[in-house]
Structures are given as structure tokens and as C-alpha cells.
């Protein structure tokens, strides 16, 4: 079974076609870098994979499931097993780091419990179960931030925030993580740290990682394969060992 | 031409020079004209006149004359206020405060719930949900637009004279106020944390309470404090239609033309409002400062 199978995917806004007839397959545990110039459609593609944006045409199978046929409940269950990390970390600013990490467990708790609304316990670290809090501290440990657990999220640096966002994604026990320019707002040192942390965590836990990046070196280093989008079309999908930096830079013309 | 760095003569056919003034359209002219007409027309209708203000000075003098010189708290003459009166007015003042506080608290709670239900896209975007949102919005509008004295008259009719009618009035008024501004505050916060939660399997309800409400909290608190200030000011006059509080005594004293006693009550009201506003202002500043520090 593959992690992702996308077939003839298209997405249009009114009369503007953002994605055009895209097909590709990604195996379990692979790490894929998506590159392309601004407005090429990278974010739209990622959003289609969790149906934050509804595709106009085509089919998407995630771990074998035809997710475009899912209704609200099944869709939520599917989403709760996919971690998402954005360029802007998207932490809730006024809440503690620990609470933000625990938020990653809301959807999963809804699914595993037979009580409706079980997940609302995870709105804050105060009400969360001891098990959840321990798990969250463990996740923070993995990104080496457990010492900041009770600090407010809006006091963190960009790199720290992004690591908290990763911890929140890990909290979901995901089998796949989608990251949209996860290090674009970080300085080069922090960017490298976060990328390699990300890569190692995913490899260790056999999590399929799909990230977009404007950094072609990152793409080659942290992606097993590189997928390039140009004007909404898939223009390259190759093993990163068989690609030269120049080829990738050409994708930006 | 070579006398300057920039040769302005070279392209003398230049025809993209920006206009000095914006052209004002005919409709604009008419709007301005209509505004002027409206000002004149309104002044006429409102019977505003400086003569009237000047003529009133003799009544004003009489009022002042009766309001001030005879005040002798605990004095001997028939007008003077006794301890008993002082206690009664104090008790009524406290009742006014209690009405305002209870009414505001209930109003904040129900206003918050209605704000959640009326905020666009907060708890859902389905067709029935949108219908709920529009309906609740209309309800909040109704609460807000009907003046509080009218609500007071209605509630006095429904539950009788006294503080309960006043409390209900303040509650409804606060629901209207908080319902609107809470909704605005929650619609204004950055939605990306909420979207992030939804994209990892949280429901709209989760996203609202775990991400939107915490982010909007400073705004919700300051709005609530404003609502309380407004309620304290509003609660004073509710007594005029019999809806409890110190306004009832004030009304009675004016009817008996006991201006000196009325002055005492006005002084007490002033003190209450002053203290409440100062405390509230202090708290509001604390909340905003606390936010600024973090950013
Ligand atoms: N909601 C939307 N409505 C209309 N156009 C959109 C919307 N979202 C994205 N687009 C357009 O789709 C194109 C691709 O956007 P995006 O996927 O964000 O590109 P990328 O992430 O590669 O920079 C852009 O031209 C953008 O303007
Ligand atoms: Mg993008």
C-alpha cells in the first residue's frame, strides 16, 4: 500500500486553474520535497491532500482510502492521523507551550473514545489527563523544549515555535506529516536545525514526510524525492540522488 | 537641455502627469449639500435655542438655591437628612450596584453564547448553521436597538416593580452589547491557529474554544468591563420607571421638589459611577499592558 496516490488532480478557482492534471505516488516512510516558484500551487496541493481545499477533479488515496469520498466524520478521523506544520507556526499565542502541544491530541481523543466530545478535555493542559500531559512532555522532550512547557507561546523565538508545532504534530501519532515551508521564516542556522530534527524524527518513526521549500539544498538533502510544480503542472518527480542542483534551479524560471 | 540631471523638456508630450486634485463627482456634491441641509433642519426640529438657555437661568438659580443652602446633614430643620435616610439611600445605592453586577454577569454569559452562535463561520458554515447565525444576529440587534427604558417598562409590566425588573433590563441590554462586540472580537482574531487545529482533526467547537476564545480573551475582558460601566450608568435611571435601585428615590424626591435631598443622591450616584469607572479603567489598562508586554 502506498502512503499517497494522486490521480489527475485539478483545482480551479473560478476560471483560474491552480493545479492541472497532477498524478504521483508516494511510498510509506518516504520523504518528499515539493519545490516551485511562488504561486506555483504548492500550498494548494498540500491543502488538497487533507481537503482543507476541495479539489475540483481527480482522486486522492491516502493509505488506500479514497478521501474525496469521505464525509465529515471520516474526514476528521483521517485528518487526526496526519500532522500539519505551516510556515507560520500557528500556535495559539496566549496559551502555554504545553497546552499548544496537547491540542495536537484533541482529534485523536475524539476518535479513540466512545464518548462524544471526549476531546474537549484537551482544550487546555489544566483539564487534560495525566497520560496526555506526560505524552506531551515526551513530545516536547523530542524537540528539546520540555524546559519551556509552561511558558506562553508568544514568548518563543521562531525556531522554538516551529519546534513546538512539530511536537504538536507528533502528539497526533501521525503516519504522515505535511509541512508547508516549515523553515521559510527562520534564520539559516535555525532552519537547518529544524529541518534535520524534522527529518530524523520522521525517519525514526517511519512517518511519511512531505514538505515544501524554496531552498533547493534542503530539498535535495531532506527529500528522498523531489517533486516540482510549475504553473500548476507537475514538472519533475525524481529521486534526489539523480538530480543536480542546477536542474532544480531551472524549475524556478 | 543639459542644465539638470533630469531632463524635463525631453518628453514635453508627457501626458501622465498626476492630477493635483481629486475630481469630486456630482453625487459627492449632493451628499455634502444634503449634510448641510440636515444640520439646519435638525437644529430647527430640536428647538435648540440660545435664548431658551439664557431664559432658563432664573429657574436654574431657583433650583440651585433650593438644592444647596439648606443641606445640613443630620441637622434640625425639616429638610435635613437623617441617619435613617442616609442608610436607606446607601442601601438603595448598593441595590443599584447589585442589579448592575448581576445583570451584567448574566448578560455576559448569554451574550457570549449568542456571540458564538452568530459569528460567521465560527461553529460551522452549513446552511442550517447560517440560518441560526442570521437569526441570532437579528435577535442581538433587537436587544441592542430597543432602548433600555423601554425594556424596563416591559419588564416592570411582566415581573412587577423592583430590582428584578431592573436586573432583567440590564441583562438584555448587556446581551445586546456583548453579543455584538464579542462576536466582532472573535471574528477579528487571526484564524490560522484555529484552522491548524481543524486540519489535525479537531472540530469547529474545539477550534473555537481552544484557539479563538483564548486569543480573543483580552478583548472579551475589556468589552465586559465596558459593559459593566455602561450598566452602572444605565441602572441609575431605571428607577425612573420603577425598575428598582436608587433611581426610584431620586424620582420621588424630584416629584416632591426636594432638590436638596436629590442633590445628595446625585452626589452618591456620582461617587459610585466614578469609583466603578476608575476601577474598570485600571483593570482594562492592566489587561492591555499585559498583552503588550508579551508581544
Ligand atoms: N482561495 C483562493 N482563491 C483564489 N485563488 C487562490 C486561492 N488560494 C490560492 N490561490 C491562487 O492559487 C495560486 C497558487 O497558490 P499557492 O498554492 O499558495 O502557491 P504556492 O504555495 O506555490 O506559492 C496562486 O496564484 C494563488 O493566487
Ligand atoms: Mg505557499
Give the topology.
The complex is a heterodimer of chains A (253) and B (295).
Chain A: E1 4-13, E2 16-26, E3 31-35, H1 42-49, E4 57-62, E5 65-66, H2 72-80, E6 82-85, H3 97-102, H4 106-112, H5 130-142, H6 158-171, E7 176-179, H7 188-204, E8 208-212, H8 216-222, E9 225-230, E10 233-239, H9 245-250
Parallel strand pairs in A: 3-8, 3-9, 6-7, 7-8
Antiparallel strand pairs in A: 1-2, 1-4, 4-5, 9-10
Helix pairs in contact in A: 2-4, 5-6, 6-7
Chain B: H1 26-45, H2 50-55, H3 57-67, H4 83-118, H5 127-145, H6 148-159, H7 163-188, H8 192-198, H9 204-238, H10 247-255, H11 259-294
Helix pairs in contact in B: 3-11, 4-5, 4-7, 4-9, 4-11, 5-7, 6-7, 7-9, 8-9, 9-11, 10-11
The complex binds adenosine-5'-diphosphate and magnesium ion.
Magnesium ion (MG) binds at residues 42-43, 180 of chain A.
Contiguous helical run count of chain B: 11
Name of the CATH homologous superfamily of the largest domain in chain A: P-loop containing nucleotide triphosphate hydrolases
Spatial sequence of strands, sheet with the most strands of chain A: 6-7-8-3-9-10
Unreliable residue stretches of chain A? none
Average pLDDT, all residues of chain A: 92
Overall body shape of chain B: extended
Specify the overall morphology of chain A. globular
Quickly count the helices of chain A: 9
Give the CATH architecture of the largest domain in chain A. 3-Layer(aba) Sandwich
Ligand identities: adenosine-5'-diphosphate, magnesium ion
Q: For this structure, what is the CATH class of the largest domain in chain A?
A: Alpha Beta
What is the string of helix and strand elements of chain A? EEEHEEHEHHHHEHEHEEH
Distance between the termini of chain B: 55 Å
Decide which structural class fits the backbone of chain B.
mainly alpha
What percentage of the residues of chain B does DSSP assign to strands (E)? under 5%
Helix content of chain A: 25-40%
* Helix/strand order of chain B: HHHHHHHHHHH
CATH fold topology of the largest domain in chain A: Rossmann fold
Amino acid at each position: 500500500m502506498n502512503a499517497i496516490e494522486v490521480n489527475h488532480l485539478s483545482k480551479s478557482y473560478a476560471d483560474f486553474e491552480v493545479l492541472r492534471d497532477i498524478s504521483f505516488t508516494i511510498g510509506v516512510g518516504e520523504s518528499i520535497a515539493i519545490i516551485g516558484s511562488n504561486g506555483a500551487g504548492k500550498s494548494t496541493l498540500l491543502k488538497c491532500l487533507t481537503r482543507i481545499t476541495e479539489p475540483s477533479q481527480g482522486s486522492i488515496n491516502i493509505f488506500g482510502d479514497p478521501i474525496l469520498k469521505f464525509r465529515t466524520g471520516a474526514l476528521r478521523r483521517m485528518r487526526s492521523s496526519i500532522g500539519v506544520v505551516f510556515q507560520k507556526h500557528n500556535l495559539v499565542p496566549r496559551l502555554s507551550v504545553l497546552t499548544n502541544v496537547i491540542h495536537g491530541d484533541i482529534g485523536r481523543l475524539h476518535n479513540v473514545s466512545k464518548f462524544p466530545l471526549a476531546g474537549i478535555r484537551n482544550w487546555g493542559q489544566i483539564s487534560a489527563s495525566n497520560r496526555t500531559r506526560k505524552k506531551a512532555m515526551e513530545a516536547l522532550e523530542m524537540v528539546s523544549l520540555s524546559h519551556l512547557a509552561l511558558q506562553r507561546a508568544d514568548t518563543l523565538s521562531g525556531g522554538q515555535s516551529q519546534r513546538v508545532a512539530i511536537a504538536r504534530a507528533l502528539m497526533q501519532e501521525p503516519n504522515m506529516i505535511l509541512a508547508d515551508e516549515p523553515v521559510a521564516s527562520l534564520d539559516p542556522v535555525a532552519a537547518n536545525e529544524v529541518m534535520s530534527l524534522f527529518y530524523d524524527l520522521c525517519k525514526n518513526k517511519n512517518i511519511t514526510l512531505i514538505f515544501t521549500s524554496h531552498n533547493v539544498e534542503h530539498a535535495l538533502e531532506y527529500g528522498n524525492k523531489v517533486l516540482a510544480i510549475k504553473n500548476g503542472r507537475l514538472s519533475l518527480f525524481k529521486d534526489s540522488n539523480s538530480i543536480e542542483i542546477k536542474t532544480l534551479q531551472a524549475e524556478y524560471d | 537641455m543639459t542644465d539638470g540631471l533630469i531632463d524635463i523638456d525631453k518628453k514635453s508630450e508627457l501626458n501622465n502627469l498626476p492630477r493635483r486634485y481629486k475630481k469630486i463627482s456630482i453625487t459627492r456634491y449632493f451628499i455634502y449639500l444634503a449634510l448641510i441641509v440636515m444640520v439646519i433642519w435638525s437644529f430647527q426640529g430640536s428647538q435648540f435655542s440660545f435664548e431658551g438657555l439664557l431664559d432658563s437661568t432664573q429657574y436654574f438659580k431657583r433650583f440651585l438655591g433650593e438644592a444647596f443652602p439648606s443641606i445640613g446633614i443630620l441637622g434640625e430643620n425639616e429638610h435635613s437628612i437623617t441617619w435613617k435616610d442616609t442608610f436607606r439611600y446607601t442601601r438603595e445605592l448598593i441595590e443599584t450596584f447589585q442589579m448592575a453586577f448581576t445583570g451584567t454577569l448574566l448578560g455576559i454569559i448569554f451574550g457570549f453564547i449568542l456571540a458564538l452562535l452568530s459569528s460567521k463561520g465560527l461553529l460551522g458554515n452549513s446552511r442550517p448553521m447560517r440560518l441560526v447565525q442570521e437569526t441570532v444576529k437579528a435577535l442581538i440587534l433587537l436587544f441592542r436597538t430597543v432602548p433600555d427604558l423601554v425594556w424596563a417598562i416591559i419588564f416592570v409590566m411582566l415581573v412587577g416593580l423592583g430590582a428584578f425588573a431592573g436586573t432583567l433590563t440590564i441583562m438584555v441590554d448587556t446581551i445586546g452589547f456583548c453579543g455584538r462586540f464579542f462576536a466582532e472580537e472573535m471574528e477579528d482574531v487571526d484564524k490560522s491557529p484555529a484552522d491548524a487545529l481543524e486540519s489535525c482533526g479537531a472540530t469547529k467547537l474545539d477550534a473555537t474554544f481552544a484557539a479563538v476564545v483564548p486569543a480573543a480573551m483580552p478583548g472579551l475582558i475589556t468589552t465586559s468591563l465596558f459593559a459593566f460601566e455602561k450598566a452602572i450608568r444605565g441602572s441609575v435611571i431605571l428607577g425612573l420607571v420603577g425598575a428598582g435601585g436608587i433611581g426610584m428615590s431620586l424620582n420621588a424626591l424630584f416629584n416632591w421638589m426636594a432638590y436638596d435631598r436629590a442633590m445628595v443622591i446625585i452626589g452618591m450616584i456620582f461617587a459610585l459611577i466614578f469609583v466603578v469607572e476608575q476601577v474598570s479603567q485600571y483593570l482594562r489598562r492592566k489587561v492591555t499592558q499585559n498583552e503588550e508586554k508579551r508581544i
